[in-house]
Amino acid sequence: MHTSVYENMSNPEKEVCAHLRQLNLWWHYEQPVFVYDHMERPRVWTPDFYIPELGIYIEVVGHRHNSDYDFRKRIYDLNRIPIIFLDMQQDNWQRLLAESMHRIHQHRWERIKQSVLK
């Protein structure tokens, strides 16, 4: 029996999913990503969304003060994996998502200019 990916999503994840659809951005739900943790052990994690066209992951934050999110953000940063931790409790999360996407691509462009377009 085939189940829909939406059946496994939380309500905030479904909200992000609908917003990405409005933006005409296709996504993969819980696509695995390889990381090395803080002790340099290999791990496979599954952020909530991956947008292949942009090369960006999104993790929907359920509780603002969850230390697990802080730990995960540090590990993703150590592995240089572009991820947006999206706090759905903020009123303007859609704008913050767009600004975060822009910031990631702006950083990429600066790196290209520094290393490739010298």
Features:
118 residues, alpha+beta, two-stranded antiparallel sheet, globular
Description:
- It is a single chain.
- The chain contains three helices and six strands.
- With 118 residues, it is α+β, with helices and mostly antiparallel strands.
- It has a domain at 37-49 and 61-118.
- A four-stranded mixed sheet has the order 1-4-5-6, with helices on both faces.
- Strand 4 and strand 5 (56-61) form a beta hairpin.
- The longest helix is centred in the C-terminal third of the chain and has 23 residues, at 93-115.
- The protein is globular, with a radius of gyration of 15 Å.
- The protein starts with 10 loop residues before the first helix and ends with a helix.
Strand arrangement across the biggest beta sheet: 1-4-5-6
Mean pLDDT: 91
Number of helices: 3
Distance between the termini: 55 Å
Helix content: 25-40%
Element-level helix/strand string: HEEEEEHEH
Largest sheet: number of strands, sense, barrel closure: 4 strands, mixed
Shape: globular
User: Structural class of the helix and strand makeup?
Assistant: alpha+beta
Quote the beta fraction. Answer: 15-25%
Number of strands: 6
Uncertain regions: pLDDT < 50 for 5+ in a row? none
Radius of gyration: 15 Å
Describe the secondary-structure layout:
Layout: H1 11-22, E1 28-29, E2 33-36, E3 42-45, E4 49-51, E5 56-61, H2 67-78, E6 83-87, H3 93-115
Parallel strand pairs: 5-6
Antiparallel strand pairs: 1-4, 2-3, 4-5
